[in-house]
Records
---
Amino acid sequence: MARHVRALTVLHATDHVVIVGAGFGGWRLVEALRRDGFDGEITLIGDESYAPYDRPPLSKHVLAGKWEVERATLATPERIEESHVQLRLGVRAVALDIEANTVKLEDGARIEGTHFVIATGTRARRLPFSADAEILTLRNRDDELRMRLELEALAPGSAIAVIGGGFIGAEVATQLKSRGFVPIVLEVATRPLIGVLGPEVSSWLERLAADVQIELRNEQRISDVVADDEGYAVRFEDGGELRASMVIVGAGALPNFEWLEGSGLTLDGGVVVDENLLARENIAAIGDVARFSWPNVMGEELVRIEHWEVANGHAQALAHYWMTGEGAAGLMVPYFWSDQYGKKIQMLGHARPDDDVVRVSGSPEEGKWLAIYSRGGVVTGIVTLSQPRGLMMSKHLLESPSTLEAALVDAPWTG
Ligand code: FAD
């Protein structure tokens, strides 16, 4: 399935690339374009006031108190100068005019370009509780600052309700516990991550919270969260109530594409782009906001994937395509990791929760294992708990179609 599609236009020094979204993907694209030799103009527009930074540390080292948040900065003053990028920070893009080749900003300015990249990512999903304005989420540096200041004012041992036991909720709970607070994770499903990793894999992970003395409650139907003088009351549909000094919601993310309504681009659960990340010859979308055509071992499907490594891969692939006219050769294999409850979960591929799964090494009791997902006998994903080497040794199973049968004979994870 090698792809060598020739672009009709390749970037020239007279071109001006306008990137909307000064987050991880947007910044990686600036770096990749310069590294690949683009010497035209680049403008990077972002609604946050901070220079581009990395988000994963926010729920890991930064929340744990091990890193100052500035350490997550990617676009240091030196890197900004070297890359000759024009940064427009603290201003939101409100429209893209694809006929006039301009982006309109909320302050009324219009930025003209020859090429446009939509890298506006996602925002934290909020839940319709009475105390919504007081409830914290963790998506960006402003959220981190607010959480830091509020935690500083809390006494050690305070109870903190973490609504949502997914990746962010589990990471947040882990760090809060390490700082002496008492997180209580409230998950609506029968088990955390069951909708992502499927019933078996999620069952192997369920004990992780208890192993580090974090309380995890499943099947929690919350009717409301109310703030009062003493903190918060989390109210349940069955009439029960939980008191907490702070409430944090980790309930997933929503793509930021509303600003493109009326632009003429196809918006359907994300900005729809082709396998070269293009919505038009000169308009691309990358990272969390992109719903891209993904050739994979099962064929081709439209997906939107919220992984750091996917945003990075998009930035590299788009820069290469616009600089050389060559599409990606070979299959992109999505990767993510999550550090939770003192363990590292890693996954390759984009398996579905109802894919077949077989554990091929380790066990939940040992605290490490590796499992293979398959559909119709073809390997679709690999997931591990604390077995990073086995995962990487097995990556080729997803780079070209492999049957489960052959994989079990080969057993590359044992190498
Ligand atoms: P972002 O980095 O979100 O950047 C988008 C930027 O666009 C933001 O600054 C946003 O404010 C801005 N923007 C939005 N709308 C507009 C507009 N109209 N005008 C101007 N600017 C706008 N992934 C993993 O694989 N592993 C992890 O362990 C992991 N941990 C994470 C922990 C946290 C706390 C978070 C929040 C994410 C984590 N991720 C992790 C996900 C990873 O960070 C994202 O996949 C990655 O940041 C996506 O990059 P992006 O450029 O698409 O979006």
---
Amino acid sequence: MDLEGKTVLITGASSGIGAACARAFAAAGARLILAARRGRRLEELANELGAAFGTDVLTSVLDVRERVTVGRWMRELPGAWQAISILVNNAGLARGVAPIHEGVIEDWDEMIDTNLKGLLYVTRAVLPGMVARGEGHIINIGSIAGREVYPGGNVYCATKHAVDGLSRAMGIDLLGTGVRVSSVDPGMVETEFSIVRYDGDEERAARVYAGFEPLHPGDVADAVLFCATRPPHANVREMVLMPSAQASAVHVARDTV
Ligand code: NDP
Ligand code: 8X3
């Protein structure tokens, strides 16, 4: 599908996979709504994309956990930005790796509220317009953590399993509406993800990706763009994308020297 002039909403566009998706869609000629909490990052990215591709960008400081705000934000989008063709549900995070009996309940709430409820709030706000127009595409960023579990992954994995279930359920509910649903499920990608998970401990975060080449955010953006550019009769329902050095959530071939 030709993306020239299509409006794409990317949540969590201030960093990592979301920012890489913004660059990929901009290069493909789309106009972008970039949402996240860190507005300054979004402005910098919008300036970069404007200079590189002449991209028309609307930046929105938005916390996907705020249900009422998300609904109002959608209703108050300028008319020219209301017809969103593609929604990339990317905003998400992990907090900690505590075993379940030592879990920090605030961390659980934050992961559930962002990865699951936030995705639902944004989707619920955007979908009626897509269904009314008879065209649209929801691309959910899941994870290998939505297909497997690993020690300390407990609630993060549960949220991504829920995203997997929702992607499949949305596909059924939207059958015949002209709205497609895809799930892109990466293994380890070097972004700010582990810095956030380890509460700003950059050395610990770097160790997650030591001794092998993880995915780069652009690799995931390539996969998302591939989903978004299939012709209307074809849909990538799900895609699992791993570093070549990773075979499962816990099997990673690291250099030992
Ligand atoms: P980053 O930490 O680099 O990016 C996360 C993005 O989510 C940021 O832009 C952040 O923006 C945004 N975000 C977090 N909370 C909120 C919120 N409440 N409201 C709006 N935006 C929010 O990590 P990644 O790029 O790696 O993560 C993107 C997605 O990819 C997540 O869903 C993650 O679970 C998933 N994923 C990551 C993998 C990895 O190994 N890195 C592997 C598989 C999946 P801000 O803080 O400005 O709000
Ligand atoms: C992020 C990848 O391996 O930390 O979803 O679960 S992992």
---
Amino acid sequence: MRFFVDSVDIVEIKKLTELGLVDGVTTNPSLIAKSGQNFLETIEKICAVVAGPVSAEVAATDYEDMILEGRKLAKIAKNVAIKLPLIENGVRACKTLASEGYMVNLTLCFSVSQALLAAKAGAAFVSPFVGRLDDIGIEGMDLIDDVVKVFSNYEFSTQVLVASVRNPNHVVEAALMGADIVTLPPSVLWKLFDHPLTEKGLQLFLADWEKTGQAIL
Ligand code: E4P
């Protein structure tokens, strides 16, 4: 399973990259708006530190402008994945951009039928949003389970990129279901380390080591 980081925070992305935990990055307009950063410059900076796919989302909703914006974003770096919304024009633009050799991430996927459209359009990634389904009382992980099954029934090459991840359980469940990728906010990624018995066990080992009076170096 690959880990993407859902963030535009370059400091955080670098820190996680140095740990060897970042296989790619996803961004979205809300993250950019919240950060106050320049979008194109941010994508360029992220692509300079991350070798894997970096999703950059178009702002247009009409086909022609989606194509123009997508091509412009893809020019920033070879590892840019053009992120398009899973609407009619997005699917059409995906087909065109994918046939030109670009990586496309179809985002805002909330149903198996939408995921099928993404696969048919040749998307490199489809992003089903788990947390936002949970928020409206629908089990988000059920969608992941279904999409993974359907894609494997037909050996679609589109990768399932689990998005809107809110906690480590989402990550573990996605792994058990065989999803290709999860994109995690840094706060969730750091939480993957946590277990009270690890901390307790380490403190005990350190205290016992101290009693031995020995040194390794
Ligand atoms: C993924 O590509 C999206 O940017 C992200 O996962 C959305 O998460 P949210 O629902 O927490 O905003």
